[in-house]
Specification:
This protein has 487 residues and is α+β, with helices and mostly antiparallel strands. It has three domains: 93 residues, Uridine Diphospho-n-acetylenolpyruvylglucosamine Reductase, domain 2 (2-Layer Sandwich), CATH 3.30.43; 134 residues, Uridine Diphospho-n-acetylenolpyruvylglucosamine Reductase, domain 3 (2-Layer Sandwich); 207 residues, 3-Layer(aba) Sandwich (Vanillyl-alcohol Oxidase, Chain A, domain 3). The chain is 32% helix and 22% strand. Strands 12, 13, 14, 15, 16, 17, 18 and 19 form an eight-stranded antiparallel β-sheet that branches. The chain has a five-stranded antiparallel β-sheet with strand order 5-6-10-8-9. Strands 1-2-4-3 form a four-stranded mixed β-sheet, with helices on both faces. It binds flavin-adenine dinucleotide (FAD) and 2-acetamido-2-deoxy-beta-D-glucopyranose (4 copies). This is FAD-binding domain-containing protein.
């Protein structure tokens, strides 16, 4: 074996000593395995959203089909000591969730086909595609999908973790708009999971992310969608009180509008020590009036506004072309709270205090406190997120995302500790007001958060059962190190 490795190593140039697994893959999938130093290897490493995503895998596999993935998984699963990572858009800020040191990274980005069914009712998207490539295809024929609001976000991680889109207050989570997943199991078998076949796997993948297999294709329901009102408004700090009141009112059941999605990002910019609010808002209903977003457009003062008639392709254009020039360390953390007349201001103030007492002292710190409504659960089937179908989180539950970026690894522990503490403080404030919530959104969570406990014991037990059934040897539990694990 070693001799073969060496021989191959000489053939293709330099190979690290511990590259036996990679050599084997290279022999099976010639031209699709990349080593350092090479342009394709480098391009993959430098394409991660957060700086800490830039790890050094022994090799990177760029599969071009489900068959390639199948061959790779079958090969990698043979040896327990082999570790690998699965990567779609590379946007997870958690260390090692979609890249790995000393192991193989399966970078799915060459698998980025996007095809509409003849009747335009289904969009078949390979899991290496990013949302910025999906919307131009759907917008063109007057339909849309429940996808990301950032062009470079991957379809694979977004959908399997839940997925909140511009249309989610009416149409729910991205995962609940999937009609079929094509999945490569630990055995290498390529299966479909849908309402008729592998129903349990279908449900588990809606919120269970990388615990069961490598998703290679996602078939998404489309919905008719004409251009809609949407955009961003930037407010200075003087407007914060009014915007927090407006958000509380927006969450109130008595004024509930399923077509209106608002995401409020209160941001501290360390460079000039300033606070501002970036509001991203959409009104996607078929009846459009300039008053649809008046709740927000009427609040003054504003620094700027881009609210206008738009579509998702246009909305995502700048970020799709984004060069990762401002690359930094990134951390996300999340909690969920029910709405009450005063909880949003209390939670906001706790974040501002954390900025004042700790985060503002970190070099290069930008920190955001981001709030938006929780999407509704499906009414006639189940996902894994643990909401009963009678729940109406779209009207009374708020997802809080704490997002920071900063310069130096030396400051990471301080940032992380303060973020976990802030989450506890917000939860305590919510408990005081009797609006504490169990759910934590996987795609916004920090690595130490207990996501599957947040789905509830029944859902967690279900996910474990499905993992045991489809992956009896625990390949996706033990060999795929990164990600939130059900065991
Ligand atoms: C700029 C930005 C904008 C965002 N906007 C939104 C938004 O509008 N709405 C929202 O809900 N979230 C949003 N997010 C969060 C985003 O949904 C998560 O970060 C998501 O996990 C990213 O998916 P990815 O494929 O890019 O990530 P990756 O880092 O590639 O993957 C994340 C996790 O999913 C697993 N995974 C990926 N692909 C597969 C697959 N094919 N099969 C099995 N497992 C897989 C990986 O192993 C990894 O553990 C945003 C994040 C950023 C950084
Ligand atoms: C890859 O990146 C490394 C480190 O940044 C650099 O030294 C090397 O020249 C690059 N190699 C290629 C082939 O681009
Ligand atoms: C999206 O909107 C832009 C600007 O309004 C327009 O130029 C473009 O044609 C639209 N795209 C589609 C596919 O409708
Ligand atoms: C919703 O609005 C009603 C009527 O204005 C008010 O009494 C109630 O407190 C509001 N609820 C919240 C959560 O703000
Ligand atoms: C944060 O500091 C600013 C400036 O000193 C002060 O005005 C504000 O009240 C502080 N906020 C909190 C929540 O402590």
């Amino acid at each position: 074996m070693k001799k073969i490795s060496l021989a191959l190593g000489i053939l293709i140039g330099y190979l690290p000593f511990s590259a036996a697994d990679c050599n084997q893959l290279h022999a099976l999938l010639p031209g699709k395995v990349f080593f350092e130093p090479s342009e394709i290897y480098n391009a993959s490493i430098s394409s991660y959203f957060p700086l800490q995503g830039r790890l050094s895998p022994t090799c990177i596999l760029r599969p071009e089909s489900a068959k390639d993935v199948s061959l790779a998984v079958k090969t990698l699963a043979r040896k327990r000591s082999t570790h690998f990572a699965i990567r779609s858009g590379g946007h997870s800020p958690n260390h090692g969730f979609s890249n790995i040191d000393d192991g193989v990274t399966i970078d799915l980005r060459s698998m980025n086909d996007i095809a509409l069914s003849k009747d335009w009712k289904i969009a078949r998207v390979q899991s290496g595609a990013v949302w910025g490539d999906v919307y131009p295809v759907t917008d063109q024929v007057g339909v849309s999908v429940i996808g990301g609001r950032g062009g470079t976000v991957g379809t694979g991680g977004f959908i399997t973790g839940g997925g909140i889109s511009a249309f989610s207050r009416r149409r729910g989570w991205g995962c609940d708009n999937v009609v079929n997943f094509q999945v490569v199991l630990a055995s290498g078998e390529i299966v479909d999971a849908n309402a008729a076949h592998n129903k349990d796997l279908f449900r588990a993948l809606k919120g269970g992310q990388n615990n069961f297999g490598v998703v290679t294709r996602i078939d998404l329901m489309t919905h008719e969608q004409s251009p809609f009102l949407g955009g961003a408004i930037l407010y200075p700090k003087e407007a914060f009180d009014a915007t927090l009141d407006a958000f509380t009112e927006y969450m109130n059941r008595s004024t509930f509008d399923p077509d209106e999605l608002a995401e409020l990002s209160y941001t501290y910019v360390g460079g000039d020590q300033s606070f501002s609010l970036l509001l991203n808002t959409f009104h996607s209903g078929s009846v459009q009036s300039p008053n649809s977003l008046q709740r927000w457009t009427s609040i003054q003062p504003q620094i700027s506004s881009t609210v206008r008639t738009t579509n998702m392709s246009k909305k995502l254009q700048p970020s799709s072309c984004k060069v990762y020039a401002d690359l930094k360390r990134v951390m996300y953390g999340t909690t969920s709270v029910g709405i009450s007349p005063t909880i949003m201001k209390k939670a906001y103030t706790l974040w501002e205090a954390a900025v004042n007492d700790t985060l503002s002292r970190i070099s290069g710190m930008n920190s955001a406190f981001i709030i938006q409504p929780t999407p509704p659960p499906p009414k006639s089937f189940a996902n894994s997120l643990g909401f009963g179908n009678a729940a109406v989180p779209e009207a009374d539950s708020v997802i809080v995302l704490l997002a920071h970026n900063w310069d130096s690894e030396a400051d990471s522990k301080v940032v992380e500790d303060r973020t976990y503490e802030l989450i506890r403080e917000i939860n305590n404030a919510a408990a005081d007001e009797h609006v504490e919530e169990r759910f934590r959104y996987l795609n916004y969570a920090a690595s130490k958060q207990k996501i599957f406990d947040g789905y509830g014991q029944a859902s967690k037990a279900f996910l474990r059962k499905v993992a045991r059934k489809y992956d009896p040897d625990g390949v996706f539990q033990r060999q795929v190190k990164g990600g939130f694990k059900v065991f």
